[in-house]
Design brief:
- The chain is of the alpha+beta class and about 210 residues long.
- The protein folds into two domains: about 5-100, Alpha-Beta Plaits (2-Layer Sandwich), CATH 3.30.70.1890; about 105-200, 2-Layer Sandwich (Alpha-Beta Plaits), CATH 3.30.70.
- It contains four helices and 13 strands.
- It has helices at about 20-30, 70-75, 120-130, 175-185; strands at about 5-10, 15, 40, 45-50, 55, 60-70, 80-85, 90-100, 105-110, 140, 155-160, 165-170, 200.
- Strands 3-6-1-8-7 form a five-stranded antiparallel sheet, covered by helices on one side. Strands 9, 10, 11, 12 and 13 form a five-stranded antiparallel sheet that branches.
């Protein structure tokens, strides 16, 4: 069965900026099986950082889960649920199933791999994982969106309880259609259920029949 994205409408004005661990816990309370299912990925929620420590949601903000299509029914109880994210209430609406579309360039906002913090060691590990999947394309760091750190790789932090997990944004270019779908299905690194290592299309490029 194919892997798809299940995209739920959201109703909230803003949520905590570092919501990954809290969102995983909230989903687990509604769908306990997510806790041990490494096939599931949770996309980062799109929004704008307009206030310190807060993420302002947009009309297009969605809760997107990447999962095998046979698992759709297990996650339908999220529709209508109210998720508590560190004191913020996030109401989840009706979902829509979206197919994965191959593209030659994929990116992930945050990839975490164990305790690897140094950029070169981290990128070497990412490329070894790609090779292990049979993907010949290579990973790179995309340009930083912070103009004061334009020469540095885009380093990001995921907070899990009292720990800070270091990771980086990653881009993979030159993918074949088959490699692109495989990378979207499998992802890279760890903590995919907390928003890490989930790859999406970058730019306008995509494959056409």
């Amino acid at each position: 069965m194919p892997t798809i994205d299940l995209a739920f409408e959201l109703s909230a004005t803003e949520i905590p900026l570092d919501y990954g661990y809290a969102l995983f816990g909230a989903i687990s309370r509604v769908v306990p099986s997510v806790h041990g299912d490494r096939r599931i990925g949770v996309h980062p929620i799109r929004g704008l950082k307009l206030a310190r420590g807060r993420l302002t949601l947009l009309p297009e903000s969605k809760l997107r889960l990447r999962l095998p299509s046979e698992e759709i029914a297990a996650y339908l109880p999220l529709a209508g649920a109210v998720l508590e994210l560190d004191g913020t209430r996030l109401r989840v609406g009706i979902p829509r199933a979206e197919p994965l579309i191959p593209a030659p360039i994929l990116g992930s906002r945050l990839v975490t791999i164990g305790h690897r913090k140094e950029p070169e060691e981290f990128l070497d590990s990412v490329n070894r994982q790609l090779t292990g999947l049979g993907i010949l394309a290579a990973a790179t760091f995309p340009p930083s969106t912070d103009p004061t750190r334009s020469a540095e790789p885009p380093r990001r932090i995921l907070r899990v309880k009292d720990r800070k997990i270091i990771g980086y944004a990653v881009r993979v270019t030159g993918l074949t259609a088959e490699e692109s779908l495989l990378l979207q299905e499998r992802g890279l690194g760890s903590r995919r259920r907390m928003g890490c290592g989930v790859f999406v299309r970058q730019g306008e490029g995509q494959f056409h029949a």
